[in-house]
User: What shape does this take?
Amino acid sequence: MHELSLAHSLVEILVEQFRERPNVRITTVYLRLGPLAGVVESALKAAFAVAALGTLAEGACLRIEHAPAVVRCRSCGQEQSFPTNAETDHDILLSSLVTLPTVCPACGALSLDLVHGDELELVAAEVVDG
Amino acid sequence: MAKELVVLEQRLLERNDTRAAELRRRFKEAGVLVVNLMSSPGAGKTTLLTATLPALSPEPAAVVVGDLATDNDARRLCTATPWVRQITTGTVCHLEAAMVEEAIARWDLTQLRYLFIENVGNLVCPASFDLGEAARVVLFAVTEGEDKPEKYPPILHRADLVLLTKSDLLAPLGFDVQRFVASVHRVNPKVPILPVSARTGEGLAAWLDWLRVLRGAWLSGSDERVRARLQLPERVNHEDQRS
Ligand SMILES: Nc1nc2c(ncn2[C@@H]2O[C@H](COP(=O)(O)OP(=O)(O)OP(=O)(O)O)[C@@H](O)[C@H]2O)c(=O)[nH]1
Ligand SMILES: [Mg+2]
Ligand SMILES: [Zn+2]
Assistant: This one.
């Protein structure tokens, strides 16, 4: 359950970011998650609800955008993107929703580098003032 | 009350990553190679370290070991090195850079050549947290089955070496090494794989070589984090060990 640690980091960042604006309340938090971030989405949402209690983010909705995993072939340079399937809340590791290739789909070479996929990023917050 | 969208674009683990980068800078300055050992519970991390430390001697090596509770592992290790710190994490299922920072606070790093961080036994959570290590080593025990690696891709994604531990049990278990290697390489096509047994000593020499070569490469490299894919002896990469 490192989702709780992640949720605390998230709330810490939000508190920090809006320190100068004490009247702000956060209504929605937008996150970007890659499939290899090692996160269970439903656990992160539950942890965030708890971590946000008593802060400006209490009750805020957590909206998750799925970033694709991207591999690049060392041989031909081709990049291929592998999106996470489905859009619903997941209660399994996101990594099980994407299947990465072992050979380059373009040239068949075995030398693939993973260039994206472990994103764990706060994108934006929707706030109301007052 | 007007709604406003504030763009923040920040990594969730930025704080941990900043701390880790600072630790890595300190380790490099002091000439310490730091290895983060990760596996599921009981894969053989502590046992491997109790065999590794005397074999590295007289090169001084330290261990920071994380567990949810008890200092059993630290007590097992303290006969092998005077530099041992136990971190008990309570309910936290992984180590974070701040915990490592605190654990090493009173050590003179320049006295050390190696620092092993035994992470909490867990194949999921530790993957996200940079501890300032130069290399990540993931251990799978043969008792866990051949297809365990591809079930836990995030931990392998940044692995620099995979150790297949308890290799003395390959034959009795009829373990299929080829299937295991294929499973690892489905996630991380380049990572070297080395079977080791703390019981028979198999693979230990190659493991020590890997550490020594990596330390040299890391200290001389200009990269902050060298993910050197080192050349391991031919046979350890693909050959079937069952015979
Ligand atoms: N047969 C065999 N057993 C081993 C070997 N290495 C470790 N074991 C056994 O595996 C069990 C677990 O080993 P540990 O070294 O405690 O494993 P660990 O990964 O440190 O465990 P945690 O810290 O609890 O996650 C012990 O009973 C060891 O004796 C090996 O090379 N061969
Ligand atoms: Mg242990
Ligand atoms: Zn290609």
Observations:
- Strands of chain B lie at 3-11, 33-39, 61-67, 84-88, 114-118, 135-141, 161-165, 193-195.
- The first strand of chain B starts at residue 3 and ends at 11.
